[in-house]
Amino acid sequence: MKWKLAEAKNRLSVVVNRALNEGPQTITRRNDTVVVISAETYAELTGQRRSFKDFLMSGPSLERHDLERDKSPMRDVDL
C-alpha cells in the first residue's frame, strides 16, 4: 500500500503491521519514496541466511527418539 508521510507517521503501528502481514509498504514525501519491509524479507533480499547450526537447532526436538547406537556385533557376510 502507498502511504503519504504524514499519514504513515500518524499510523505507524498500522504501517508496521501491514509490512509484516501483507508485504512491503511504500511511504512518499514529495518526490522521495521509501519502503518498509519486514526483517525476514530484508534478509532474503540481501542474501543473509541462518547458519547451518541455527537451521538444525530450529528443527523438531529429538528427545522422544532413542538415538543410542546398537552395540551388538555385526553379522558375518561372505563376500
UniProtKB/TrEMBL annotation:
Similarity comment: family membership: Belongs to the phD/YefM antitoxin family.
Species of origin: Tautonia plasticadhaerens
A Pfam family matched in the record: PhdYeFM_antitox
Biological role: Antitoxin component of a type II toxin-antitoxin (TA) system.
Protein name: Antitoxin
Domain of life of the organism encoding this protein: Bacteria
InterPro entries xref list: Antitoxin_Phd/YefM, YefM-like_sf
